[in-house]
Amino acid sequence: MDPQAPELMARRRFLKLVTAIPVLGALVAVISPLLRFLKPNVEKFKIYAPTTGDTPKGEPTAVAALREVANPWDSKYFVFMQKYPQYTPEGFKAANVPGVVVRLPYPITLFDPATGQGPLSWAKEIGKTPTVTQSDIIIFSRICPHLGCIYNYVANYKEVTAGYGGYVPPPERQHALMACPCHLSIYDPADRQTPGRVVSGPAPRPPRTFLFEVRGDQIVVTDVEPGGIA
Ligand code: FES
To answer: What letter would DSSP give residue 193?
Structure first.
């Protein structure tokens, strides 16, 4: 036997393998779109969600029972799953948005049907009309509009002074506040004109809000204000 035969055979096998790689690549390139055609992400022949365009959506989610936020300044944290239409096997990509339900000591205007103004005025952008327009319940996203950290609801304003950069609220704001540990932005959830108003720190705007309904004894979130971090 030729002493070089095993080496020649190994070389041939290697060459066969190398030439097979582009063939396999070409097969994948043909089969992948075919599989996507046979199992589309949203609907046959459509690449976008038919009714919502690229507006993020989520399933209505019960986030608190009324009794859990029965008294002024009660609060409840929750997480809402936001869904973006995407070209994936599920037809969406999910992102978790942490939020906080706050019971204020007085009702505020969330949406004025006459002027279209209020913290929930964004609802019309997604084709919704707020059903709760006046309420002492308000629901904020906990994503800080400065650079996207998760801020805290701090029931005692003295803890804000002690732990978030020494901010001393004026008498009318000496109540629960929302405070971000990253760059010390502080928000007043109960500001009558602009709930969530930035009262200290670098945040450019109040936190985004959630649209909600009251179903039986449950507070149900249906949508979160669209937009980026700020
Ligand atoms: S991320 Fe919250 S203050 Fe900067």
So the answer is: S
Q: Is 142's C-beta closer than 6 angstroms to any atom of ligand 1?
A: no
What does the pLDDT read at residue 51? Answer: 46
Q: Mean pLDDT, consecutive 10-residue segments, the chain of 230 residues?
A: 74 78 77 67 48 66 97 97 78 87 97 94 92 96 97 98 97 98 98 96 97 96 86
Q: Is 7 exposed, middle or buried (0-12, 13-18, 19+ CB in 10 A)?
A: exposed
CA–CA separation, 184 and 204 (whole Å): 13
Where does the chain have alpha helices with state H?
5-38, 157-163
Best residue among 140, 149, 154, 205 to mutate for probing ligand 1, ranked by most atoms within 8 Å of CB: 149
Q: What is the maximal distance between C-alpha atoms in the chain?
A: 100
Check the CA dihedral 189-192-198-200 and report its sign: negative
Residue from 79, 93, 81, 1 nearest 41 by CA: 93
Which of 178, 182, 208 has the most ligand 1 atoms within 8 A of CB, as the residue to mutate? 182
pLDDT of residue 118: 94
Q: Which residue owns the Cα nearest ligand 1 atom 1? A: 147
- Does residue 185's CB lie within 6 angstroms of at least one atom of ligand 1? yes
* Residue whose tokens read 């669209």: 226
